[in-house]
Write a structure and sequence with these properties.
The protein has one domain (2-63). The chain starts with a strand and ends in a 6-residue tail after the last strand. The protein has 3 helices and 5 strands. A hairpin with a 2-residue loop joins strand 3 (55-58) and strand 4 (61-63). It has a 5-stranded mixed sheet with strand order 2-1-5-3-4. The radius of gyration is 12 Å and the shape is globular. It is of the alpha+beta class.
């Protein structure tokens, strides 16, 4: 099982901040995971509708959407973060 974390807008749309998920073996990258999640139902499809505004982290380290997820204990999804 891999823990998925959802932050900000994604948490609001999906309706939960985290879940444990058995990721299918053919899902090998963050981008493929997003596609898998979007097929789960309309709520996930809405939350992940625009991959250009999705950022991800694998085991608390920022990762590009083409990063492999094999062995990940935790994957987090969040919108771009700005500061000032």
């Amino acid at each position: 099982m891999t823990k998925l974390l959802y932050f900000a807008r994604m948490r609001q749309i999906i309706g939960k901040g985290e879940e444990d998920l058995a990721i299918p073996g053919d899902v090998k990258t963050i981008s493929m995971l997003i596609d898998f999640l979007k097929r789960r139902d309309e709520t996930y499809a809405s939350a992940f509708a625009d991959p250009r505004i999705i950022r991800a982290a694998i085991d608390q380290a920022h990762a590009p959407l083409d990063a492999p997820i094999s062995g990940a204990r935790e994957i987090a999804f969040f919108p771009p973060v700005t500061g000032g």
